Amino acid sequence: MNTLKARLREFKLSGIYKSIEERLSFAKERNLSYTQFLELLLEDEANNRKDNSFRKRYAKAKFPAHKRIEDFDFSFQPSINRRVINDCLTCSFIKEKRNVVFIGNPGTGKTHLSIAIGINALMKGYKVLFTSVSEMLRNLNASKADNSYYQKVSFYLAPDLLILDELGFKRLPGYSADDFFEIISKRYEKGSLIITTNKTFEQWTDIFTDAVLAGAIIDRIVHHSTIIMIKGPSYRTKNLKKRGNKNWFLREFNYGKKFGVDYGILLDFEA
Known about the structure:
Elements: H1 2-10, H2 14-30, H3 34-61, H4 82-89, H5 92-95, E1 99-104, H6 110-123, E2 128-132, H7 133-143, H8 149-157, E3 161-167, H9 174-187, E4 192-197, H10 204-208, H11 211-222, E5 225-230, H12 238-243, H13 246-254, E6 266-269
Parallel strand pairs: 1-4, 1-5, 2-3, 3-4
Antiparallel strand pairs: 5-6
Helix pairs in contact: 2-3, 3-6, 7-8, 7-9, 9-11
């Protein structure tokens, strides 16, 4: 057995290496044929490689937290069309090089949903990268100092799904807007995006300072995309509401009125 396991390790068949003794006992008990025994071993190896691939891609995805769709409280955000979210969870939009944009107040679950979709994408074999917009732009700007800019651009173009979180929390300087356009334009119809933002498209000119540039960015993002607008209070106010802190809760809830859009609507943009 030691010689056999040494050869399995040599050939890097770690799935079979870990299960060989258990499978031998199982095969003897069930009187399996050689073919059935071999099928079991190959299935163990395939599952082990799949698990290893998932773990490696999960680490590279750099999610800030592990968020499952099962843990999302749809009853707290009734404006969200669960059928549309379930469609996103199939990850067909990645295969079709489409985008998903979540628009809503801070704390309404945009990041949770984007991570849950990203994890499903990993389970289906896709490569995913999660980053805040500010972190990506900071890295791109810093890369100009050591002439690694295009290498860093390639880093953000490589994943099948790039999740850009927190667009619009602060106005971007001109050079950052150019860098953002660089990523968006080069991923256009070549790789999928999920973007979370607290700004409606009409407000994106405030983010990018240049109305023409903002229009070009929106045009590339919105084409072939699903826009999910979330109307509702922050999850962070949920417990406060239960404790009776009504004034603070209502103040947070009324913040949503500043958006000036009907968040209950799902918009699906096509050519």
